[in-house]
UniProtKB/TrEMBL annotation:
InterPro entries: SET_dom, SET_dom_sf. Gene3D superfamilies: set domain protein methyltransferase, domain 1. SUPFAM superfamilies: SET domain. This is SET domain-containing protein. It comes from the Eukaryota. Residues 1-293 form the SET domain.
Length: 333
């Protein structure tokens, strides 16, 4: 995988293929794996932890990821303690039965979505050539090969080609309301982008308003769909484990399976990496899948801290929990 090399990540022999039954891309094993085998090791410096802390300064400290260089600017701009006027990342809508549905993006989710959307906008919509070295300032995000490789792996173009509104304006009212919330947040982000844009960049945004809106909306959907919940392992003491959410490139190539998944992932603080291991024996050609909700990785009674809610609140206990936890001990993670 070219992206794996760019991120200095390690992966076991596997291949990305399209599933015959539905055409969805996934990863399959190229050799037989045994339970506990290491499948992926992705450096944490290229990942994002959207809910690592409620404190804005600590949240920025935990999210100094090198994946999107421009994300640091947007994270500072979208944080609640930003010196400029704040950007609302919360939207609410009232239903016919007088319920209120509210959706909130974390500043990290929003900054990564904006970074991906603008990189796609300038690379795929405007199609401007690089102007570095010609005496004029470059337009759009800076050139960064790992970010462009990850952008290429995101299905933003497919989301745009299929259309986002159709599936959500259905008989399921709640889905339509969630879409309305995401749309409102996307508009707020667009206004923030326009207010921060230099005059020359603003002219391009103004010339392609519908493309900018659609790209922002698609980026939010794509990034939220790739938000993984997993245990953060700080050491051998199980009581220190926490549940957190992660945006982890390469790991998010694994498709979600709530039942029958054959992989488990954790944030290994000692290794400073997101680690994926096999939870059972896997045959050659078998698809590698992961439970995106990370259920069953924490024991009941774990305490709560800024990394997220405790295992008792967020994770379902499985009968063989201790076996899964053993896969991610501090020494073996």
């Amino acid at each position: 995988m070219t992206l794996a090399r760019a991120l200095r990540a390690w992966t076991a022999p596997m291949a990305q293929v399209h599933r015959p039954r539905d055409g969805i891309r996934g990863l399959v094993a190229k050799r037989r794996f045994q339970r506990g085998d290491l499948l992926m090791d992705v450096p944490l410096r290229y990942c994002y932890l959207p809910h690592a802390s409620r404190d804005p300064r600590r949240l920025r400290r935990w999210n100094r990821s090198a994946l999107f260089p421009e994300a640091q600017f947007w994270l500072r701009r979208l944080s609640p303690d930003a010196p400029d006027e704040g950007v609302s990342l919360t939207a609410s809508v009232s239903t016919e039965d007088k319920k209120v549905i509210t959706l909130t993006l974390s500043p990290v989710e929003a900054s990564v979505a904006v970074s991906a959307a603008l990189r796609y906008f300038w690379r795929k919509v405007v199609l401007l050539k690089n102007r570095e070295g010609v005496g004029r300032p470059p337009l759009g995000p800076p050139n960064f090969h790992p970010a462009d490789l990850y952008l290429h792996a995101l299905p933003i173009e497919k989301y745009l080609s299929y259309g986002l509104e159709g599936p959500y304006f259905s008989d399921v009212e709640e889905e339509a309301n969630v879409h309305s919330n995401i749309e409102q947040i996307a508009w707020n982000l667009r206004d923030c982008i326009l207010s921060c844009a230099p005059q020359e960049e603003y002219a391009f945004y103004d010339a392609h308003p519908s493309e900018l809106d659609a790209t922002l909306l698609a980026a939010i959907y794509v990034l939220r769909a790739r938000l993984l919940r997993m245990a953060a392992v700080f050491g051998d003491d199980q009581a220190s484990d926490r549940v957190t959410s992660v945006i982890a490139p390469i790991v998010d190539f694994l498709n979600h399976a709530s039942v029958g998944h054959n992989c488990a992932a954790c944030v290994s603080i000692p290794r400073r990496a997101v680690v994926v291991r096999a939870v059972r024996d896997i045959g050659v050609g078998e698809e590698l899948t992961l439970d995106y909700r990370g259920r069953g990785q924490l024991r009941r009674g774990a305490t709560q801290n800024s990394w997220g809610k405790s295992g008792a609140e967020e994770a379902e206990e499985s009968e063989n929990w201790w076996e899964s936890r053993y896969l991610f001990s501090a020494k073996e993670a």
